[in-house]
């Protein structure tokens, strides 16, 4: 709580008329070279806002979280006099191999626009542009000027551009991209990047900063502050990562391995590691990936950071969870020690009994052994999940309970049929009440919400949780070692130099007076 005076905003009146409330947020931990939205002059400006609303599959919103976290940026723009033109990518309509773009309603922004209109009670309009078959949309034509006119006159609340990846220039690297960027820049006065999950250097996230004064949105600011905690975690630091391909994750995995105290692998990434370590074959794992994983196996012989989940689920088919077609297999020998009391030649295993007994031996143990399935040369069908009992393994549980920082970018099983491993993982992580828990975006958040809706919504308001909008971006930051090395972030800092970004806060007498951050 701090006294508020009208003079704090340039009014020149030094009278305390109220107080402001500290919400615990701030930009103090951000690099001072970053141009922040709070200090931009937006009055009567058209603001081109790039967000990451890539939450639509088959025309329906899977999880609105990535939309909701950008609402603060939208409000800030409008409240300070700006008029928003919003854009996002959805899906992967561009086929990199064939160089074709597929435009279909499943990848349209319509579901997002409908959600925003219901949420904000504001009318958005999506412009229509001509598409040239598999070449996508070539140009932003002049018909959009009618919409911009209505936007300025406040007849509509905002313009939402079609899926950016429907445009031929979005992922292009030549003249087509340059033409698209110039056309985008011609729509607006100011550009704001609030798309943490979109770290690739595309036209709408990177090249646009060459032409317009550009700023960092509020969601992006939060993400950059919190990703620093993953880079510099409170120890012990546990990371849980999964992936459908091993070779594409080598860089982030190597960087993460160097930072963690322990790491748990999942998905095909874990299957690949198991093949490399135990000399087995698992369906769906490529030989080339196994060779790559052997380097991690050798490194881990000395450092012992990979925490193995001992029980995994094998299935004969990927068509579903079919009774009799799947089973639990064991990567190593499991020993269970069960306390027993020997009473006059008989024993009671576990449990407690009342009454008077003569103890021949006060305490002993039964040792149950589960044979190891993973032996060199063995071949297995598809390994599609981690058995939930893996998270009850004493060694695994000890690490999960003792961690002070946990980063999760993982779905352990093949959804939706094999979900038990992921569900148990989320439960055990939550049972650690002292750790700071960071969850990656995309599938990780979608499945977290689907499997544990109550826990998910509690996590949104918990100081112990932070949910990133882009897990892949966090991995990229870990690989680079510094969020300021992300290409899109570097572009914003270069833009600040080019356009002379100099925030003046409060009652400055020289230069333009900008409002105190709100």
TrEMBL record:
<comment type="similarity">
    <text>Belongs to the phosphoglycerate kinase family.</text>
</comment>
<dbReference type="GO" id="GO:0005524">
    <property type="term" value="F:ATP binding"/>
</dbReference>
<dbReference type="InterPro" id="IPR015824">
    <property type="entry name" value="Phosphoglycerate_kinase_N"/>
</dbReference>
<protein>
    <recommendedName>
        <fullName>Phosphoglycerate kinase</fullName>
        <ecNumber>2.7.2.3</ecNumber>
    </recommendedName>
</protein>
<keyword id="KW-0547">Nucleotide-binding</keyword>
<comment type="pathway">
    <text>Carbohydrate biosynthesis; Calvin cycle.</text>
</comment>
<dbReference type="InterPro" id="IPR001576">
    <property type="entry name" value="Phosphoglycerate_kinase"/>
</dbReference>
<dbReference type="GO" id="GO:0004618">
    <property type="term" value="F:phosphoglycerate kinase activity"/>
</dbReference>
<dbReference type="Pfam" id="PF00162">
    <property type="entry name" value="PGK"/>
</dbReference>
<dbReference type="InterPro" id="IPR036043">
    <property type="entry name" value="Phosphoglycerate_kinase_sf"/>
</dbReference>
<keyword id="KW-0067">ATP-binding</keyword>
<keyword id="KW-0418">Kinase</keyword>
<comment type="subunit">
    <text>Monomer.</text>
</comment>
<keyword id="KW-0808">Transferase</keyword>
<keyword id="KW-0460">Magnesium</keyword>
């Amino acid at each position: 709580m701090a006294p508020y005076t009208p003079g704090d905003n340039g009014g020149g009146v030094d009278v305390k008329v109220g107080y402001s409330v500290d919400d615990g947020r701030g930009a103090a931990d951000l690099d001072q070279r970053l141009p922040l939205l709070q200090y931009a002059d937006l009055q009567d400006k058209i603001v081109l806002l790039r967000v990451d609303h890539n939450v639509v599959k088959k025309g329906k919103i899977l999880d609105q979280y990535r939309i909701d976290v950008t609402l603060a940026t939208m409000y800030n723009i409008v409240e300070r006099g700006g008029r928003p033109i919003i854009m996002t990518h959805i899906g992967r309509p561009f086929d990199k191999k064939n160089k074709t773009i597929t435009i279909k309603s499943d990848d349209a922004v319509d579901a997002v626009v409908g959600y925003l209109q219901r949420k904000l009670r504001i009318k958005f309009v999506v412009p229509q542009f001509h598409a040239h078959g598999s070449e996508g949309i070539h140009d932003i034509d002049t018909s959009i000027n009618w919409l911009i006119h209505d936007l300025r006159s406040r007849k509509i609340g905002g313009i939402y551009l079609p899926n950016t990846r429907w445009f031929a220039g979005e992922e292009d690297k030549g003249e087509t991209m340059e033409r698209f960027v110039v056309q985008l820049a011609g729509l607006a006065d100011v550009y704001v990047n609030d798309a943490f999950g979109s770290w690739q250097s595309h036209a709408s996230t990177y090249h646009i900063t060459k032409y317009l004064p550009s700023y960092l949105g509020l969601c992006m600011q939060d993400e950059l502050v919190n990703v620093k905690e993953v880079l510099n975690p409170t120890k012990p630091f546990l990371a849980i990562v999964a992936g459908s391909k091993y070779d594409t994750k080598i860089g982030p995995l190597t960087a993460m391995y160097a930072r963690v105290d322990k790491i748990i692998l999942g998905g095909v990434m874990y299957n690949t590691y198991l093949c490399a370590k135990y000399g087995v074959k698992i369906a769906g794992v490529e030989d080339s990936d196994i060779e790559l994983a052997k380097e991690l196996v050798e490194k881990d012989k000395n450092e012992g950071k990979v925490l193995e989940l001992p029980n995994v689920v094998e299935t004969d088919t990927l068509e579903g969870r079919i009774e009799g077609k799947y089973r639990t297999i064991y990567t190593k020998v499991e020993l269970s020690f069960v306390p027993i009391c020997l009473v006059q030649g008989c024993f009671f295993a576990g449990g407690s009994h009342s009454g008077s007994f003569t103890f021949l031996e006060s305490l002993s143990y039964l040792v149950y052994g589960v044979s190891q399935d993973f032996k060199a040369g063995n071949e297995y069908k598809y390994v599609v999940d981690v058995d939930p009992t893996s998270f009850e393994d004493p060694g695994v549980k000890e690490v999960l309970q003792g961690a002070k920082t946990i980063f999760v970018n993982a779905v352990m099983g093949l959804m939706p049929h094999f979900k038990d491993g992921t569900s148990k993982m989320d439960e055990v992580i939550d049972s650690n009440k002292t750790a700071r828990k960071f969850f990656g975006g995309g599938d990780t958040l979608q499945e977290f919400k689907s499997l544990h809706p109550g826990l998910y919504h509690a996590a949104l308001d918990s100081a112990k949780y932070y949910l990133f909008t882009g897990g892949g971006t966090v991995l990229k930051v870990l690989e680079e070692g510094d969020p300021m090395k992300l290409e899109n972030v570097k572009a914003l800092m270069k833009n600040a130099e080019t356009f002379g970004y100099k925030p003046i806060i409060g009652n400055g007498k020289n230069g333009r007076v900008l409002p105190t951050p709100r």
